[in-house]
Amino acid sequence: MNERRVAWWASEEFWRKCAIFVTAFMAVVLIVLTFDSVSAITAGRGRVPDYTVINQRIGYVFDEARNMKVPSIGASAPLFGKTLSADEALALVDLGKVTSQSKNCMDCHTLLGNGAYYAPDLTKAWLDPAWGNEASRETMMMNFLMDPKRYARTYGTNRRMPNLGITEAEARGLIAYLKWMSAIDTNGFPAGFVAIDQGD
Amino acid sequence: MTDYRSLSAGQKVAVKYFVAAMLLFFAQIVFGLLAGLQFLMPEFLYNVLDFNITRMVHINAMIVWMLYGFIGSVYWLVEDESGVELVGARLANVNFWIFTTAVAVVVVVFLVVQSGPGNQESIWFINEGREYIEAPRWADIGIVVCVLIFFYNIAATFLKGHFSGISGTLVLDLIALAGMYVAGMFSRLTCPWINTGGGG
């Protein structure tokens, strides 16, 4: 064995410890960040509203101080004309979310920055001007979700949504899920979105 | 050229993983081309094999071939790096076939069943509908089990032989890899037991 001495900072031992320490430290950072994110995205805290927000009118207004559009929670405006309790609202939004997952919406659409851009971004879909006006919105969304071939809307792309066999209950859930999502403060994302005219 | 028979036990396992990685890479290209064609011709395979399915197979093939390539590379170098033979060559082979069978089943279900009703059964057995982690819940658990078996095999081999800086980092990162898939199984709305805020 060569007994030649090396400086402590050049030894294999030192760098082995460094590599293992840095990896272990970053693993701990990742775990902390995971739990911190879970806390930040919990409904009812900060920028993610409680599920009962679907009982209220969602606006989208420009905030001068932040220089971006932010959702505004307005007066009572029950979805499908029925005010829901906290449990009922959770169940309906949950049905919508599970439906959006089982129908794999995210591999064509984008939700909260996650997904594809083959079809429109759904983050603010509840506020999309394509639904005409406030009075026609719920009916148009129901018709479209349950029979997207017949009520096709392609935004000039010729890409049509396939018929995914969405039931009436699932469509109601999806609309509740989209209404709730539109009330999440997303720092103005998606950029340049113009909301349906609600007289805001 | 190296003769296959002259390879070590770990390297023979590695070759299996490399072959599977190449097949998956080929699938990624084929389904990427199909998805690309659907951008140009929106009616191509409309309501037969829609864009959300072709894109899902495309991006998941990418994730899984990289995982195979990574596992294969570790098996290729673990004996050189540790100075001893792979502890569980037979286990590594069994693990390979379990993992590969699971991947094949997931892909067949993606292509044939495609989507289900909006309930937890669809999430567990068809499609989880979340970008990059579309694999159904049963497969998530399978991936974690396979990664933990892989982790045991690698950690035990290094423990028997020589633990270097590279191996320390690698083994810690394997725990993080399993942890990442564990975290991917939870989602706020669908896990009421961790839903501390909001309507639940």
Largest sheet of chain B: none
CATH superfamily of chain B: Cytochrome c oxidase-like, subunit I domain
Give the CA-CA distance, first to last residue of chain B: 63 Å
Give the DSSP E fraction of chain B (strand runs of 2 or more residues). Answer: under 5%
Instruction: Estimate what percentage of residues of chain A fall within beta strands.
Output: 5-15%
Strand order of the largest sheet of chain A: 1-2
Helix count, DSSP H or I runs of 4 or more residues of chain B: 6
What can you tell me about this protein's structure?
Chain A has 200 residues and is an alpha+beta fold. Chain A is 37% helix and 10% strand. Chain A has 2 domains: 8-40; 51-182, Cytochrome Bc1 Complex, Chain D, domain 2. Chain A has helices at residues 12-40, 86-102, 134-146, 168-182, and strands spanning 56-63, 68-76, 110-111, 114-115. In chain A, strands 1-2 form a two-stranded antiparallel sheet. Chain B has 200 residues and is mainly α. Chain B has a single domain (7-185), classed as Cytochrome c oxidase-like, subunit I domain (Cytochrome C Oxidase, Chain A, Up-down Bundle), CATH 1.20.210.10. Chain B has helices spanning 9-40, 51-82, 89-112, 120-125, 137-160, 165-183. The longest helix of chain B has 32 residues, at 9-40. Chains A and B meet through helix 1, helix 2 and strand 4 of A and helix 2, helix 4 and helix 6 of B.
Brief characterization of the structure:
The complex is a heterodimer of chains A (200) and B (200). Chain A has 200 residues and is α+β, with helices and mostly antiparallel strands.
